[in-house]
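Course assignment 3, question 2. Fill in each field.
Student: A.L.
Task: Predict the tertiary structure for the chain below.
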Amino acid sequence: MKLGVFMVLFGGRKLEDALDYVASKGLKAVEIGTGGNPGKAHCNPAELLENEAKLKEFKHAVESRGLTISALSCHGNPLHPQKHLAQADHEDFVNSVKLAEKLGVEVVNTFSGCPGDHENAKYPNWPVAPWPNDYQEILAWQWENKVIPYWTEQAKFAADHHVKIGLELHGGFSVHTPATLLRLREAAGEAIGANLDPSHMWWQGIDPVQAIHILGRAGAIHHFHAKDTVIDPINVNRYGLTDMQPYTNMLERAWQFRSVGYGHDVKTWADIISALRLVGYDYVVSIEHEDGLMSIEEGFSKAVANLQQVLIEESLGDMWWV
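Answer field:
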């Protein structure tokens, strides 16, 4: 496995400076934002697709530093009920897939999106309760009329361009658990897989190791994010895991994102890496930083150190068994 980083973390730096910094930390891969919520600070697919010279320059900037691109990421909501918003995210996805093919990048990461509750809705509706029965009716309508038709078409488009789709399992979107990912994969095809982020499993009450086994046995892990979550044992009893307070209200929230090793210990992360190895995942572990208690440099450096320790110990363990 290679250790990498989601470059949106360094969106305030020029691409070349950010790549130099990442390479200096001993990382081997970068995940590049190409639209949607991650933005296009380091890469605008539409521009690179129209300019071969800029495309070669971009590719050289990465490869000349001994780095590879693990994924292009354009997390958005292509199922948004407001058509102009959905179209913008859809176009970012399409351009990301086309660019990934040209760059030889295996995966495009995004969200599944979440539709509204009827054709003329204005906002997404995320049903998470089986009763009252209205929610079951909304859920069925969304999957039958929006989620499955859209992603069946996009999975074929991605496969035709030799690209896999890594859907991040994230609350607020139709695909947010191993079960919902596998449901969509069965309907839309094997181009659909997970960009599995343990942090989103923990706050939903899902054990990431078990999620890895469930998805890995189906060959459905296309990419992996490394981010931690800490759950406050007092606040969670007041607000529950579906806490709607803003992330900035860290003292009162039931849970919050942390850098690797600051929500769960290194042994837990070693179990996660071991599970990935066990199910045959041998791609990139991409660090994502959303820790409000640490600066970018501190959070990134701590995550790198903790994951390097885990990966080194895992490699030594392999040698011992040999």
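Instructor remarks: The chain is about 45% helix and 15% strand. The longest helix spans residues 134-160.
Grade: pending
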